[in-house]
Amino acid sequence: MAELAVDKHVKYILAVEKNKDSFESVVMDHLRMNGAYWGLTALDLLGKLDSVNVDEVISWILKCQHESGGFSGNIGHDPHILYTLSAVQVLALFNKLDVLDIDKVATYITGLQNEDGSFSGDMWGEVDTRFSYIAICCLSILCCLGKINVEKAVSYILSCKNLDGGFGCTPGGESHAGQIFCCVGALALTGSLHYVDKDLLGWWLCERQVKSGGLNGRPEKLPDVCYSWWVLSSLIMIDRVHWIDKEKLVKFILDCQDVENGGISDRPDDAVDVYHTYFGVAGLSLLNYPGLKAIDPAYALPVDVVNRIFFSG
Ligand code: GRG
Ligand code: ZN
């Protein structure tokens, strides 16, 4: 079986980060904050975070912060909770949370909670369980969970639970592995996993593994490397990861590498991108692939980073 082409992937990620005129960078312009999180977390898991210029990244992040306390995807764009979590996660990676006015960020997020406990993504009001996870993860990293109504947040997430054991984006929404990660992650971070039917959800999740070893996001869909994260992290959080064939999944992810130019794609022989490179590496980390740092399935950050946040006083 092919091995993980660590050096090639490091080179690929650093090149995407540097070459701001590349096709991928232009397409991703408005999502650069998410891209920074994907690329830098992957580099950290690969043990190469020290090859980036920390001051440059931090000063760019701070230029993306708005008066409201929220962060945008790039300089001059509108703030959104999606980019706010990525900004906080990147600062955590570099052990630089102290550059933040924590109350200000927490106030932005707290202000997005609705009466029913749900969260909007920004001032325009779209509601989605993705934003519940993001709010809870971000506040938890900032040690400010107490600033929202956690009980209502949990009860909204539970109202999005379906009869198949999965979760959707709003009440009645179809179960999807991405939303399941968000809901299970939010429940894990609030100590509420006892509300999940682990056997029922575990079955739904392990049925996502297809013949090639890859995982899909819903029944009848094609496998995709990013679900190695969404599905696997959920299975780990509910303690059912032994229900899939780990070796076949490792092989599927490794088959999606561009072994010449670096990077990982969604499926074998497709074009690579930073998003799938990150989720491929993160998936392999969850599978204990040798040489990679361990990643926390709920915080989506390296375990040593999470430990530093909570245990270094
Ligand atoms: C910190 C890891 C992390 C996440 C932050 C943004 C977010 C919280 C979570 C997103 C969860 C989500 C909904 C992921 C799914 C993304 C995806 C591949 C969507 C495509 O779905 P479909 O159904 O495509 O259109 P396929 O063909 O795969 O079914
Ligand atoms: Zn994908």
Description of the molecule:
The chain is mainly alpha-helical and about 325 residues long. It has one domain: Glycosyltransferase, CATH 1.50.10. Helix content is about 50%, strand content about 0%. The protein is built from 14 helices and no strands. It has helices at about 5-20, 25, 30-45, 55-65, 80-95, 100-110, 130-140, 150-160, 175-190, 200-205, 225-235, 245-255, 275-285, 305-310. The radius of gyration is 18 Å and the shape is globular. The mean pLDDT is about 95. The structure holds geranylgeranyl diphosphate (GRG) and zinc ion. It is an enzyme of class 2 (transferase). It catalyses: geranylgeranyl diphosphate + L-cysteinyl-[protein] = S-geranylgeranyl-L-cysteinyl-[protein] + diphosphate.
Summarize the structure.
It contains 14 helices and no strands. The structure holds geranylgeranyl diphosphate (GRG) and zinc ion (ZN).
What characteristics describe this protein?
Glycosyltransferase, binds geranylgeranyl diphosphate, 14 helices
Largest sheet: none
The rounded Rg comes to: 18 Å
Structural class: mainly alpha
| Shape, principal axes of CA atoms | globular
Q: How far is the N terminus from the C terminus?
A: 43 Å
Under CATH, the topology can be stated as Glycosyltransferase
Kindly provide the name of the CATH class. Answer: Mainly Alpha
EC number: 2.5.1.60
Keywords: Metal-binding, Prenyltransferase, Repeat, Transferase, Zinc
Subunit structure: Heterotrimer composed of the alpha subunit RGTA, the beta subunit RGTB and REP; within this trimer, RGTA and RGTB form the catalytic component, while REP mediates peptide substrate binding.
Family: Belongs to the protein prenyltransferase subunit beta family.
